[in-house]
Write a structure and sequence with these properties.
2 helices, globular, alpha+beta, five-stranded antiparallel sheet
């Protein structure tokens, strides 16, 4: 048998076989799924807990100001979500809205 030369085929080094992280600090909705922007009612204020997705999506949302701890109010939740952040309205697509995990802030 050939030794593993860093190609990812060794024991426990294949794609998707790494250590899985628990959902620390993620607030779950009614049915056990994480609460995301697309599931929040219009007019509610939320705090961003985590942004899931690829590097490009995370960087794009960070450039818009949507980072962990940001306070956001949801103006429109269906289709492209419209968010208000620091007095600026931002529209994000449905896929990006499903990648933003949030917690509701009690009024």
């Amino acid at each position: 048998m050939r030794p593993n030369r860093g190609r990812g085929w060794g024991r426990g080094q294949g794609w998707g076989r790494g250590r899985r992280r628990a959902h620390d600090g993620v607030f779950f909705g009614r049915h056990g799924a994480p609460l995301t922007i697309d599931k929040v009612k219009r007019g509610s204020r939320v705090r961003v807990v985590r942004v899931r997705g690829g590097v490009r999506l995370i960087q794009r949302l960070a450039a818009l100001g949507i980072v962990r701890g940001a306070l956001v109010s949801v103006s429109r939740e269906r289709g492209p979500a419209v968010l208000s952040l620091n007095g600026v309205r931002i529209a994000v697509g449905r896929g990006a809205a499903m990648a933003i995990e949030v917690e509701e802030i009690p009024e």
